[in-house]
Amino acid sequence: MSDADEYPAMMDMHARCVSILANLWGVQKGEKAVGSATTGSSEAIHLGGLAMKRTWQEKRKAEGKDTSKPNIIMGANAQVALEKFARYFEVEARILPVSAKSNYRLDPDLVRENIDENTIGVFVILGSTYTGHFEPVEEISKVLDEYEEKTGNSIPIHVDAASGGFIAPFTHAKAGGPKWNFELPRVKSINVSGHKFGLVYAGVGWIIWRDEKYLPKHLIFELHYLGGTEESYTLNFSRPGAQIIAQYYNLIHLGFTGYQNIMENALRNARLLSRALESTGWYRCISDIHRKKGDHQFVKGKPQYEGSESSADYNAGLPVVAFCFTDDFKKDYPHVKQVSVQNLLRAKQYIVPNYALPPNEEKTEILRVVVRESLSMDMIDRLVTDICGVTEQLMQSDTFDLAGWQPPPSVEKQHSSRGHLAKDKDKHNQPMTKGIHRSVC
Questions:
Q1: Do residues 73 and 186 share a domain?
Q2: Reported confidence tier of residue 407, pLDDT bands at 50, 70, 90
Q3: How far is 28 from 61, CA to CA, in rounded Å?
Q4: CA-to-CA dists, residue 380 to 153, 383, 385, 394, angstroms
Q5: Which of 78, 80, 79, 56 is nearest to 68 (CA)?
Q6: What is the 3-state secondary structure (H, E, C) of 313-358?
Q7: Do 72 and 182 have their domain in common?
Q8: Mean pLDDT of 350-359
Q9: How many domains does one find in the chain?
Q10: Of 140-154, 217-231, 356-370, where does mean pLDDT reach its minimum?
Q11: Are 318 and 234 part of one and the same domain?
């Protein structure tokens, strides 16, 4: 991926992948989309954020205004790469709290309260790492439209679709109905991980700008010493090209129908796992892809909704199952901690992490299962059996027995960001300047 003259076929495949993704995400007629493969979504997010920062700086300088205090908006459920961008590129991260009311995702009302003339952009996540929820891109876009009408300041959106970029376009549920991609003029760039639901092995991400004008010229380098003229606008230079070949192969070999079948099946299996867990009476799901479209809350005793096999009947989201003990279970077995379920499942070779929800909801801990195309119904049956088995084992154990499976709280939790609003940034337990954060990958 470093010498276009030496590997022209590789560069052709790279260009075709960029074109396919741009059109998959609704690039509009007359726009000339540009993009690049990256080393995962982290680099892609940094490039998207950097483009927004440089665009903001150029506009402010042209108007003779101060450029020393840029800020960017994101939810407390943001993946660590988003916070890394803010710290590495000297941008104030306004990390807004999420709540059960906002479905554990970025709240448009809080966005409205925290943007100003120094806001370079908003990171909106299509597929929360914690719970799999899609953030309301179109609602946030409307908030920014209203702000621009009042102030004249245009704030762009970068969609972090690391997981959802290969889910929303193919599934019948889409993003739940509202728009999320380049169909919204406010969305200037989108990233995705090829090694997540793009079905490629680890080491490839993609960043696409809807038009070349949204990639500042001075971020593009021209190279002339490799035999021809080549443009580069990535943080890495030399990198393997095998993942690009695999991505192109998947896109051509599977096609739209192939990806759709795989993603619909993953959602179907995730719904099956969700229903099985809630049927025990011991667990409730924080994720809601198994509930009827528009129904987001767990209600004790409510019959399970079983619509058609199509995801269109259900809430949109990633094929992620985030679950926790029910209130009744906690009342009956107060000595049992969820971390014991994680530890006992690990002994059976499962990695089902247990961790707290984002700041503001950190009192709720969840267990999380990501349903990939390789998780078959037979494996789900075995997983449910083993979860029930370890839960029953915990229910039959006393406090002394459980001590070995329930380690004390980690030091990490004592140094977590609190998710305060911008006006309360001085109250952060560990603000950006201290360099210690709690996030998930």
A1: yes
A2: low
A3: 30
A4: 50, 5, 8, 21
A5: 56
A6: HECCCCCEEEEEECHHHHHHCCCCCHHHHHHHHHHCCCCCCEEECC
A7: yes
A8: 93
A9: 2
A10: 217-231
A11: no
